Amino acid sequence: MKPEPFLTGQFLLALPGIGDPRFERAVIAVCAHDSEGALGIGIGAVIDGLSLHDLLGQFDIDPGEAPDAPIHFGGPVEPRRGFILHSLDWSGQDTVEVAGRWALSGTLDVLKAIAAGNGPDEWLVALGYAGWGEGQLDEEMTRHGWFNTDSKPELIFDTSVADRWEHAFSQAGIDPRLLAAQGGTA
């Protein structure tokens, strides 16, 4: 059986020299990828000065039991739109299961559940996303810039933000210190 050409459920890691400062050392959880395009949530950087309690306050949600966790830079597209990557033990109004590995939700019900202490066991909140149009990611994958890996979902929930990029490369058997900032030509 031929492997699926799409990257849903995998991680994209920015290679040194990607050429876009917004994506330096980026780690993106690919949540949807098909012939029409792709959507991923950045998990490799947090937004300075913004926490979960701040975000909950903007929606008049009492933080309750929710820890004051950092908010991640999900990507440059729609930077005011929120997304929650979470474990598969909770599902809400618009929850999408991602390749049986984690789930993605984008409505207030998941934030309310987290605050009430009855949300998913593991979760990460991000603002914005990385998006690609039809065939765009497929084309980008043929050039220097991105490396995809089938790293474990624990990368999202159990690895510190500062360590995710290096850890994901290490899990793929690559020492990121040895990566060149540009590709060669033959």
From TrEMBL:
<dbReference type="Pfam" id="PF02622">
    <property type="entry name" value="DUF179"/>
</dbReference>
<protein>
    <recommendedName>
        <fullName>UPF0301 protein KY084_00995</fullName>
    </recommendedName>
</protein>
<dbReference type="InterPro" id="IPR003774">
    <property type="entry name" value="AlgH-like"/>
</dbReference>
<comment type="similarity">
    <text>Belongs to the UPF0301 (AlgH) family.</text>
</comment>
